[in-house]
Design a protein that fits this description.
Distance between the termini: 15 Å
Shape: elongated
Number of helices: 4
Structural class: mainly alpha
């Protein structure tokens, strides 16, 4: 278990460096952006509902932003799948843990 935790931390560090990593820095960054957007949206909607100031226009802007972000993310993932070719010598998790 301790080796797996070490592996996870080393992969996180390698992800944002020039070293090869099992994880994808793009997907980690996208997840972080998604999480921040979700938290801010929940805070804004909650405050607006409590203050009774959430109008239809505000709601449409929020929904439009989320739909736009979803479309952008889907497009980026499909581009990544086309660009990224996984070479045979890329280490997988099992090979790294066995070393």
């Amino acid at each position: 278990m301790k080796e797996k935790i070490k592996w996870i931390f080393s992969e996180l560090l390698n992800t944002f460096s020039n070293k090869k990593s099992f994880l994808s820095s793009k997907r980690i960054e996208r997840f972080f952006i998604f999480s921040v957007m979700l938290i801010l949206t929940i805070i804004f909607i909650t405050k607006s509902i409590i203050a009774c100031t959430l109008g239809a226009t505000d709601f449409m802007i929020i929904i439009g932003s989320w739909l736009g972000y979803g479309g952008w993310t889907t497009t980026q993932i499909s581009k990544d799948k086309k660009i990224e070719s996984t070479p045979e010598n890329t280490p997988n998790e099992q090979q790294i843990l066995n070393e």
